[in-house]
């Protein structure tokens, strides 16, 4: 029987370009539901032979998670187990990334190590996952090696980062079986099919065509016991797993746990409650509560309330002393319409990571941009409206991803540090949002900036894919620059700052620049590519600013100014190319 996850992966022609690393990227999408995999690949994949046994270093500051991964893809999937030696390589990877002198690291890992160590030190990272992703059968030997790699990482973090808030370090084999399970969770809203009895205290039923729901309260003790048995499998309809705890009052999960510990009687009124999908439900006499009734359910998938469930479920025994007096509002929903079910999942997933962009989805600017994008060829823009997890897995080819849009606008309008290190703030902070998404921001301008970002990402990949033996000295300098994290956003900002030299005339308002309304994102990337190639020889002048992930604003300013001067100085030699590009650009 074929593996459905590998069958879906085989249809992803966009991932084929990444070779065996394509499966790593696919696993990330299955786990996290991300739709902008190109930008993730450009930033997270390590390239070159000297990668210190590490194929991918993915830092997700919003989720507080670090993924260090090694990949392996056999020509004949599932015929045997994957080589355990590649799992043991993760010992080497974590040692290089988390300890020792970063100056002794190769270019393709130095910047990643600086980024990772900084994120752990500033208490951003809560979970470290060591992944071995492959298309073979899973084995005890591999799991043993991964457990050893996890022990190595725990030792290094404990000794080297005493103030870190890392609560979980695990090794995870993602082979055929796990890939299939992850894929199943993206396709089936209800992964746990067991039957349960829920001790409820009253409630009411409401129904409409295709769905029926029972609204009630559930005991925190029941929720905690179900979590202990099934953990994140309960969250199969949810676009996020439980995100863990950061000991800060602004963190929702810390707040949930604090209330559960300190004020369990008030939990019901403070918390928004749960939406739980079930295959069926009915009220039955309780065997041990006199005349009371229990709710008998078949199947459970928590579509809204992942953080509530995880927070209560992970309470230690000492923290759960008041759990018997804790209740949570809940509605159990049975639905027989796949279309309505998909919408239930879509509209109920409104928290944490995706809340930032989602919060803006009804903004008048986003409404206008979606209408404008309807006139742009071969482009789909959601403007903060969430698509399903399956959209990310199957890939919507013409999707202009929100994250890449926000990054491109921030970088093009002079804020590369924001573009790389704090994209979430673009959506969260009203002032920052208004700076980039305002009455001057048009769909055609977004295509202009988005295409530049994609053209730079493509240029990096083209150089990275070259055999090191055939790279010219200039190309070697270029790949050394692009291996620094944040380099792509910095290069976009530098090109944007040089627009007057490239176009040959004064630019009064950068928001007015576009290729017009008839240009698709794909064609726009083609328009940008020659300009990007012409600017590449000067990228090494930006290297000092890319050090430490663009944190030094003065270094960034000076480096961009130097880059701009070089573009101006070589303008005459490149004038025919620039004039050809300029003829395509519109200014209003």
Overall description:
The chain is α/β, with parallel strands linked by helices and 588 residues long. It contains 28 helices and eleven strands. The strands form two sheets. Strands 5, 6, 7, 8, 9, 10 and 11 form a seven-stranded mixed beta sheet that branches. Strands 1-2-3-4 form a four-stranded mixed beta sheet. A hairpin with a 7-residue loop joins β9 and β10. α10 packs across α12, α21 packs across α23 and α21 crosses α25. The longest helix is centred in the C-terminal third of the chain and has 22 residues. The termini are far apart. About 2% of the residues have low confidence.
Q: Determine the strand fraction and express it as a percent band.
A: 5-15%
Summarize the main sheet.
Answer: 7 strands, mixed
How many H/I helices? 28
> What structural category arises from helix and sheet content?
alpha/beta
> What integer is the average pLDDT?
89
Give the helix proportion (percent range). 40-55%
Q: List how many beta strands DSSP finds.
A: 11
Shape: globular
Distance from first to last alpha carbon? 57 Å
The low-confidence parts are 245-250, 350-355
Radius of gyration: 25 Å
List the helices and strands and how they pair.
Elements: H1 4-10, H2 13-16, H3 21-32, H4 37-44, E1 56-60, E2 65-72, H5 84-98, H6 107-121, E3 127-134, H7 140-160, E4 168-174, H8 176-187, E5 192-199, E6 204-208, E7 211-219, H9 220-230, H10 252-262, H11 267-270, E8 274-277, E9 280-285, E10 293-304, H12 306-313, E11 327-335, H13 338-348, H14 355-359, H15 364-373, H16 389-394, H17 402-412, H18 416-421, H19 423-428, H20 430-436, H21 443-464, H22 473-482, H23 487-497, H24 499-503, H25 521-535, H26 543-546, H27 553-569, H28 575-582
Parallel strand pairs: 2-3, 3-4, 8-11
Antiparallel strand pairs: 1-2, 5-10, 6-7, 7-11, 8-10, 9-10
Helix pairs in contact: 5-7, 9-12, 10-12, 17-21, 17-23, 21-23, 21-25, 23-27
């Amino acid at each position: 029987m074929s593996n459905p996850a590998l069958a879906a992966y085989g249809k992803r022609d966009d991932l084929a370009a990444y070779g065996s690393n394509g499966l790593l990227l696919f696993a990330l999408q299955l786990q996290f539901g991300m739709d902008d995999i190109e930008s993730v690949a450009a930033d997270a994949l390590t390239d070159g032979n000297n990668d210190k046994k590490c194929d991918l270093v993915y830092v997700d500051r919003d989720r507080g998670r670090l993924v260090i991964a090694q990949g392996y893809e056999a020509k004949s999937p599932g015929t045997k187990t994957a080589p355990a030696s590649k799992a043991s390589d993760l010992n080497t990877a974590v040692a290089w990334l988390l300890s020792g002198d970063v100056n002794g690291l190769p270019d393709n890992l130095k910047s990643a190590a600086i980024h990772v160590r900084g994120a752990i030190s500033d208490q951003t990272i809560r979970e470290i996952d060591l992944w071995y992703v492959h298309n073979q059968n899973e084995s005890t030997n591999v799991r043993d090696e991964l457990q050893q790699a996890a022990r190595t990482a725990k030792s290094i973090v404990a000794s080297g980062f005493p103030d870190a808030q890392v609560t979980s370090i695990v090794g995870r084999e993602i082979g055929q079986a796990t890939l299939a399970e992850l894929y199943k969770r993206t396709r089936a809203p209800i992964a746990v099919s067991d039957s349960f009895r829920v001790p409820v205290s009253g409630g009411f039923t409401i129904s409409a065509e295709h769905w029926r729901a029972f609204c009630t309260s559930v005991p925190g003790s029941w929720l905690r016991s179900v979590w202990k048995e099934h953990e994140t499998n309960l969250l199969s309809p949810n676009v996020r797993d439980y995100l863990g705890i950061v000991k800060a009052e602004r963190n929702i999960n810390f707040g949930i746990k604090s209330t559960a510990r300190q004020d369990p009687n008030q939990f019901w009124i403070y918390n928004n409650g749960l939406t739980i999908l079930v295959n069926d439900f009915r009220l039955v006499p309780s065997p041990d509560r006199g005349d009371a009734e229990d709710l008998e359910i078949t199947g459970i998938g928590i579509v809204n309330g992942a953080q509530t469930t995880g927070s209560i479920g992970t309470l230690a025994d000492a923290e759960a002393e008041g759990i018997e007096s804790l209740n949570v509002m809940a509605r159990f929903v049975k639905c027989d319409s796949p279309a309505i079910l998909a919408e239930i999942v879509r509209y109920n997933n409104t928290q944490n990571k995706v809340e930032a962009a989602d919060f803006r989805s009804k903004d008048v600017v986003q409404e206008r941009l979606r209408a404008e994008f309807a006139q742009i060829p071969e482009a789909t823009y959601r403007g903060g409206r969430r698509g399903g997890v399956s959209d990310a897995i199957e890939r919507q080819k013409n999707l202009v991803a929100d994250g890449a849009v926000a990054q491109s606008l921030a970088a093009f309008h002079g804020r590369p540090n924001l573009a790389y290190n704090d994209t979430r703030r673009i959506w969260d902070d009203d002032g920052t949002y208004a700076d980039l998404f305002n009455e001057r921001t048009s769909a055609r301008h977004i295509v202009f900036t988005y295409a530049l970002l994609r053209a730079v990402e493509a240029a990096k990949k083209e150089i990275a894919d070259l055999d090191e033996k055939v790279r010219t000295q200039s190309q070697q300098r270029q790949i050394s620059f692009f291996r620094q994290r944040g380099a792509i956003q910095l290069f976009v900002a530098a090109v944007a700052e040089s627009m007057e030299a490239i176009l040959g005339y004064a630019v009064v308002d950068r928001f007015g620049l576009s290729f017009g309304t008839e240009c698709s994102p794909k064609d726009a990337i083609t328009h940008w590519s020659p300009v990007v190639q012409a600017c590449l020889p000067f990228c090494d002048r930006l290297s000092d600013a890319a050090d430490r992930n663009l944190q030094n604003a003065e270094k960034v300013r000076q480096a961009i100014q130097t880059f701009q001067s070089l573009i101006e100085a070589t303008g005459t030699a490149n004038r025919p190319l620039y004039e050809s590009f300029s003829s395509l650009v519109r200014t209003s």
